[in-house]
Design a protein that fits this description.
Helices cover 31% and strands 20% of the residues. Strands 1, 2, 3, 4, 5, 6, 7, 8, 9, 10, 11 and 12 form a 12-stranded mixed sheet that branches. Helix 10 packs parallel to helix 11 (302-314). The chain is built from 11 helices and 16 strands. By secondary structure, the chain is an alpha/beta fold. The longest helix is centred in the last third of the chain and has 16 residues, at 270-285. Bound molecules: threonylcarbamoyladenylate and magnesium ion (MG).
């Protein structure tokens, strides 16, 4: 069921049931983060492997200290500057955090989502919420309540509807390694923004064999229709005779084989492109076509997170 009844959401969550929640990045599939019984349901519904740890959501950065210790000064400064917002902090966990949340790691991921309904919900709960993106594992993340309902509607008792997500790509994940701030997932807060606040950071690209962050698995966020990324005219040439869907950054392309085409941002805005990205990937995935062809966006600011998602969507077809 979809609705905006906060009391109902509170009641279900206190009862260790699942509720899908809106955030500024993507919708989350939430449960009481301090209850193993509740968290297990997230893994079951998402069909998510237990080795993939969960982010916990709280309503104020000062509460990070309840769940984490030895928070590096630069991370605390980022949290104070950017929270609530699309950034997740990887910190040394305290014992209050169940093992299942961190997949046995000594680190816990914490973020303060910037959505009024979810902040209100969190302030009415005596526990934080564990919430991965509310999609089946490996599929495109949901950016509206309807996206969640399409895939998981039957399996979760309630979807809290907070409208369309304003950022549209997941949070940036940042931690501290070898005394240096380290980004593990590119996301809604750009590297440029972070570096303007704390100086240079290192970026750890994914490793498929041993992902620090399985959101960084090589193939993720993937449509069902084959998805290819590259120079659009060359891709169109290479797929002569096939039914094509095209996802471009700011300009439409004309070609007889194109059955459906979406432009991420006709006004060339990276934030608009991020907002539309997952919704457009879903729309094209529903078309009766042989292949979806896409191009990268300018590789700066939010564009780096968008290109990261596009590359992972295409990873099985490169
Ligand atoms: O924007 C977001 O972060 C959204 C919304 C719902 O908050 N959540 C989200 O969750 O993207 P999920 O589970 O789809 O992706 C979380 C990523 C995963 O790649 C996971 O492996 C990583 O964060 N992660 C969580 N806890 C971790 C930990 N203790 N150590 C390393 N990686 C961790
Ligand atoms: Mg996810």
């Amino acid at each position: 069921m979809i609705g905006n009844d906060l009391k109902k959401a509170v009641k279900l969550l206190k009862n260790n049931d699942l509720v899908a929640i809106p955030t500024e990045t993507v919708y989350g599939l939430a449960a009481n983060a301090l209850s193993t019984e509740a968290i297990v349901k997230i893994f079951e519904v998402k069909n998510r492997p237990f080795f993939d740890p969960l982010i916990i959501h709280i309503d104020h950065f000062k509460k990070m200290e309840i769940y984490a210790r030895n928070i590096p000064e630069k991370i605390l400064f980022l949290a104070a500057s950017l929270s609530p917002g699309p950034i997740t902090f990887l910190l040394e966990r305290k014992a209050i955090i169940p093992d299942l949340i961190t997949a046995g790691s000594p680190l816990v991921a914490i973020r303060i989502p910037n959505h009024p309904l979810t902040l209100d919900l969190l302030s009415n709960l005596p526990f934080p919420l564990a919430a991965p993106s509310a999609n089946p594992f490996g599929y495109i993340s949901p950016t509206s309540a309807q996206h969640v309902a399409q895939q998981l509607g039957e399996e979760i008792p309630y979807i809290l509807d907070g409208g369309t997500c304003s950022v549209g790509v997941e949070s940036t994940i940042i931690g501290y390694e070898n005394n240096q701030a380290t980004i593990y997932r590119k996301g809604g807060i750009s590297i440029e923004k972070i570096e303007s606040l704390i100086g240079s950071v290192q970026v750890k690209e994914h490793s498929t064999s041993n992902p620090k962050s399985p959101g960084q698995l090589k193939s993720h966020y993937a449509p069902r229709v084959p998805f290819k990324l590259g120079d659009l005219p060359s891709l169109i040439d290479a797929h002569q005779g096939e039914r094509l869907a095209v996802l471009s950054f700011d300009k439409a392309i004309k070609h007889a084989s194109i059955q459906k085409q979406l432009v991420l941002s006709p006004k060339s805005s990276l934030s608009e492109a991020a907002q539309n990205l997952f919704a457009y990937m879903r729309l094209l995935d529903q078309e009766d076509v042989d292949v979806i062809l896409a191009e990268k966006v300018p590789n700066m600011e939010l564009g780096k997170a968008i290109n990261d998602r596009l590359m992972r969507a295409a990873a099985d077809y490169i």
